[in-house]
Write a structure and sequence with these properties.
123 residues; alpha+beta; 4 strands; rod-shaped
Length: 123
């Protein structure tokens, strides 16, 4: 492909823009896959008294802009209120404390590592 010297800057910008679009689409795809895997991991590893809390984990798109894409993994209503209490522990009515059941932090660490690994592999 021959490019005239006068059109070089325009062609370089076009190629960079195309690369940016392809990269953004790949980031969106990988982050969706990792969010889905993280929600499944939390479904499996969350405390199960009745099972409602563990089954409530889901994911969705947080923010999508030209240079930014976020996914959010969360517990759905009304179980979302239990997340912090279970993860960090809390005060009981009788003055004692409920021990923390750490289940979100390990899933978050795995998700961050998996996202970085997949992006390095695919890009």
């Amino acid at each position: 492909m021959a490019v005239k010297i006068g059109n070089l800057a325009k062609e370089v910008m076009k190629q960079l823009e195309d690369y940016g679009i392809e990269t953004g689409l790949e980031v969106e795809k990988v982050s969706r896959e990792v969010a889905e895997d993280t929600a499944k991991m939390l479904n499996k590893n969350s405390p199960k008294l009745t099972g409602d809390y563990a089954e409530s984990w889901t994911y969705g798109v947080g923010e999508t802009k030209r240079t930014r894409h976020t996914m959010i993994v969360h517990a759905a209503k009304p179980e979302y209120a239990l997340s912090h209490l279970l993860e960090k522990g809390h005060q009981n009515r009788d003055g004692g404390r409920t021990p923390a059941i750490v289940h979100i932090a390990p899933a978050e660490e795995v998700a961050a590592e998996e996202l970085e690994k997949e992006l390095r592999k695919r890009l």
